[in-house]
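Protein 1 of 2
SEQ + STRUCT:
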Amino acid sequence: MGYQGRIFSIAVVILFNIIRYYYYHQYLGLPFKWNFFILTFIFLTIAWWCGKQYDSAKYYSERDPLTNTFNRRTIEQKFQRISAVCDKEKKSLGVIMVDLNNFKDVNDQYGHQKGDELLNQVATKLTNFVHKKDLVARWGGDEFVILVSHLKEEFNNDYIQALLRSLKEHNDSEFSSIGASIGFAIYPTDGDNLQKLIQIADRGMYEEKRNKDK
């Protein structure tokens, strides 16, 4: 959770009290009273609380309520900002689609609660695996999207393969048979917008899934 709301609110209150002090005690020449600090403290407390409510609302508006990863709307917005930076710095951006294999079987055999536990487990693994500047989002159902900044040449071999190995390491034995299929695309080589990149990554993901089923 960020602190933008609280920082902004506190800054406004501090500025207001500086103006208040100079207006009443310097410009009007009124005597300074100790209750100035009491009012300032009250204003700061209210500002902190209001800013915290804003920060909390902003945080949860960007997150998937089940997995606490970013939601689809947020990742689309962040892609616009990150791709603009990539254009400026002449760098590439990876878009990875992750889909769980046989997820429906988990819901059918163990119930939706266990399915939710699996999604949370996968989300945690993805979040722990990615680099600090990479972003993880739940795209829908059992699909996740990862935005990978500052791609290296070994992205296809090292990063993707390491991600697959990480996803296979399930802590819960009843999910041990659940694997994942991955597809990816690279901006701007494969496309100049997120929708096109997702389509390419999606095709690669389902091609891998079909090959596993053979």
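Protein 2 of 2
SEQ + STRUCT:
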Amino acid sequence: MADEMGIDLDSEEVKEESAAQMALEEAQGVIAENHPLHELSEEYWKKGKDWLDSELPEENLLEWKSWVEMGRENSEAIESDLRSAEEALEVIQWYLFFIPVKIKRALHDQMDGFWDQYPDEERSDLGTAKIAAIAVERSLEAWEFLYKLFPKEELLAVLALLEKLREGLIEVFPNYPKFIRPGFDD
């Protein structure tokens, strides 16, 4: 195809242009990685993973089950809440690493400038930010459910990080709600 278009891929000009483009993309990646919003998302996944990997979830569930055995809680309600807790944990695990990846990509796309000429409904950076915001919302709901079951200080720290992420996405990408996801938002 390059031959058909009269482009010599081995020319110095093409090589220099390619090297410059790669250097620019690498620099944008570093900037996105060091952006406060991305750093906050990294802090979130680390804190969330630490909690999930700790003994606290299992200890909380055991404590909860003991309440049922002592008659302090209704077993049917507990079974329902246990199913909901398992669903909440699945949501958290699904989005834990997803959020920082999408935020970094949105920041990178925003710097690129390519999408500036497109309407907000079609911009890749806003679409990726919208997906990240949805993941943050769903994660926030899941963590809030767990906090209602196990009101522990460790969960408050995670909830605070997610709230900061929600606010940060709105601040950095104020028009992300305008993006239209085909098949979902129309």
